[in-house]
Amino acid sequence: MTERELYYDVVVVGxxxxxxxxxxxxxxxxxxxxxxxxxxxxxxxxxxxxxxxMRFAYNSVEDLIALIDDPSEHDIRMMADLLPRRTxxxxxxxxxxxxxxxxDQELLEIHVxxxxxxxxxxxxxxxxxxxxxxxxxxxxxxxxxGGGYGLQQRNFAYLERHNVPIHYETAATELIVDDxxxxxxxxxxxxxxxxxxRAKAVVLACGGFEGNPEMRAxxxxxxxxxxxxxxxxxxxxDGLKMALEIGAMPYGSWSSCHASPQDYNRxxxxxPSSMTIGGNEWNRYAYPFSIMVNLDGRRFVDEADxxxxxxxxxxxxxxxxxxxxxxxxxxxxxxxxxxxxxPNYDKATGERANTLEExxxxxxxxxxxxxxxxxxxxxxxxxxxYNPNPFRPDGKRTEGIYxxxxxxxxxxxxxxxxxxxxxxxxxxxxxxxxxxxxxxxxQHVAGRPIPGLYTAGEMLGGLWHWNxxxxxxxxxxxxxxxxxxxxxxxxxxxx
Length: 495
Fold this sequence. Notes:
- This protein is α/β, with parallel strands linked by helices and about 500 residues long.
- It is built from 13 helices and 20 strands.
- It has helices at about 15-25, 60-65, 75-80, 90-100, 105-125, 145-160, 215-220, 240-245, 310-320, 335, 355-365, 365-380, 470-495, and strands at about 5, 10-15, 35, 130, 140-145, 165, 170-175, 185-190, 195-200, 200-205, 230, 250, 255-265, 290-295, 325-330, 350-355, 415-430, 430-435, 440-445, 450-455.
- It has a six-stranded mixed sheet with strand order 6-3-2-10-20-19, with helices on one face.
């Protein structure tokens, strides 16, 4: 039986923010575009639907006003007071700091330089932003209107208005390469069987391998095959495997990932449809205002070596390394009174008690060690003003203990005490493919580009190593998705 064949100029594999940015950019080149989405239509959109913002450079609040529909004078004043700018130099320094200087500097230069231009490009596509400075933990000055879910719904609507076919429940299985090494299409499996999508250029933007336990164990190490996913279950490394099979160069940090503190009883993964019924209730991101202890009652990490936005993606790894892969975030009444616990903590897995001993017993923590840990921590907190600002550290630290707490160090001494059980939740993996930073064309292990193949999103390697600044994946996805789509569209038009 002959396989079905469909013909496009550009085929985009994936339907997250990076993929749809690529599709929209390719469309601007006047070519025929088709999108392959592994998920069913009800769960379309990938991890991008589960997030909230993009981290971009801007020079003044005026740059933010241009993104917001009718901002109030109060919002403008608050934004100007809390985070009046994040320059390109600031964004560069943030990323180089959290990646320990390992971020590919050519990629990073483009990411930083093009971030605000890409946001304005999205604005032209019908997107808008809303002020979000009031959240006590995120450090987001503005967020996408409707979050990532809203952004993706608008992206899909844009492509549908421009008659771009989106093939749902269609899992790419193989890149088709001609005898000169050029990628000329994709073989995929849909509900009716195998189908071949012929194309002049292909953009792979179908996520990392976080949804694949075997690949997690192989690349991330022991115990990673057992972690829960903060993201969707569809990102199983298919695009990476297809590209590696034809000689694509692996690049970046294949042994690290975005992994954050999640409720211990969270489900094994998240779905886009959950965003319509409450969404991010499983994130446990108030930890900078806590101490975190393990089952032995011992602290094991500096809970606040920087603001939450620059630390949360590495905290999951620290939690996974603890006995049983579990930790507990401990707060006292002062934290709740100051409004530092987001509403989702009201439904978190945890306990409250009027004494430290009772709290430890309820949580199953070693009572003696826990009480000693808290008392030692309290004694180590230095005098000074406590300023739990999510946009900047306050410098209120401990002295004489290990691990230290570098900021927001306030004694745990006012009952009632609260403790919440958390686990490691993986969002996406950092290892990907090497590309030409200017075009996003995938590079071959032989040291030359692979004709007809481009990549973006979680599949692009080299930017993130060990840690990650909040909102940067969405920004990189849109930026390099736009570049990949533009490059693929031009190659298809000229070829």
